From TrEMBL, chains A, B:
Residues 201-231 are annotated as: Disordered. Transmembrane segments: none annotated. Residues 213-231 have a biased composition (Pro residues). This is Pyridoxamine 5'-phosphate oxidase family protein. It comes from Micromonospora fluostatini.
């Protein structure tokens, strides 16, 4: 469990909030991209970026020239708020008011620091590549010195973290159940299409990618557990 | 075109940035959820929520008790940054450095105000329901007075807005093209599964939902135009 704080305690719909580490990790690992929030001159900013979790650290990918990366260079780091959201379905109720969405959403607060150690940075870049294909870091050219210098990575320790989620079916009021309207859930799932090889590629599609001819994975049912995204 | 400002001008990869209204609208209309960024006591906060665009206003859905909604109550409104991201594919390069993602991402800056006019609020709630099914606002029970009072909506005028996007294939260096590694793009698409009716529903699946037995829409090719998400 992540210890709840003022910033990670629900003011409403408390039953949707959790601080369970395994559940938080599952969302961070399934999602490819996040929203990185920070403050510039008192104003809110958001940079969408890619992330990877390694243990209890969330790493955020960036370029050396981007604003938050520059700001995180200093010894104090950068106060950030990171959100990761997976949309699992749309909920159609008989009443407009009870329309909703099924989702899993992690929000993490803390201070991010620029990763300056080349070994740590290399490990993060390996983890980012492994995230999109287990074993792929051995089937690609690793970064050279120039590429390593051109890549910036922020590290955010996972300490103040919460998960908000809705799952399941329609929550119509008792009095609305006889209304003659369709109600139900439409599951949504980020689904991979068939791999499209670059020109000149002479090797077959790796095993960690969806194979040619295989139909996409069916969407999860709202009541059952959600399988991890294809890697 | 949205007029570029300091906050919506790229400091790097300028070719990925656009201010085209139609392209911005298309992303906002296809995506169901957004990240709403704001500042509390100098610290960044992000609230994931649902949105709908009506003309040149982005409306953000919330509950009357949530922090940003309370903060936006005042005459000055609330300084916000909203980001909406659609992940269109994963890009597998021969070099780890050139791994990337295809995406379309809108960021909007400005001051959000709480919608206090009941007519405007009703129109927004109608638009939110229409977004998940054209015609659905006529096949549902509209909000009553209590439900209207319990729903809060923020309005953000679309003035300072940018779109960042990557599309297309692998960007490997010339020198890497002969490496014996698989490279290519795996398209990703948020795909609806079959509708799961609530218990006791006596009417058929509406036409705006994926019909029973129809296979999911194939993922878009990275070169072609991306069709709008199923409504």
């Amino acid at each position: 469990m992540y210890p709840p704080t003022d910033r990670t305690t629900a003011t409403r719909m408390r039953d949707r909030m959790s601080h369970d580490r395994a559940a938080v990790h599952a969302v961070l690992d399934e999602a490819y991209h996040c929203a990185l929030g920070f403050v510039v001159d008192g104003e809110p900013r958001i940079l969408p970026t890619l992330h990877v979790r390694v243990g209890e650290t969330l790493y955020l990918h960036g370029s050396t020239g981007s604003r938050p990366l520059l700001a995180a260079r200093g010894p104090d780091g950068l106060a950030v708020c990171v959100s990761v959201t997976l949309l699992d379905g749309l909920v159609y109720a008989r009443s407009q008011f009870n329309h909703s969405a099924n989702y899993r959403s992690v929000v993490a607060h803390g201070t991010a620091h620029l990763v300056t150690d080349d070994r740590e940075k290399t490990e993060v870049l390996t983890a980012l590549v492994e995230k999109v294909g287990a074993g792929r870091s051995r089937e690609t050219r690793p970064p050279n010195r120039r590429e390593l210098a051109e890549t910036a990575v922020l590290a955010l320790p996972l300490r103040e973290v919460s998960l908000r989620a809705r799952a399941g079916g329609v929550g119509d009021d008792e009095a609305d159940l006889d209304l003659p309207y369709w109600a139900g859930v439409v599951p949504l799932r980020l689904t991979p299409g068939l791999p499209e090889p670059d020109a000149g590629v002479g090797v077959g599609v790796p095993g960690y990618l969806p194979a040619g001819g295989t139909p996409p994975t069916p969407a999860p049912t709202p009541s059952g557990p959600t399988p991890p995204a294809p890697r």
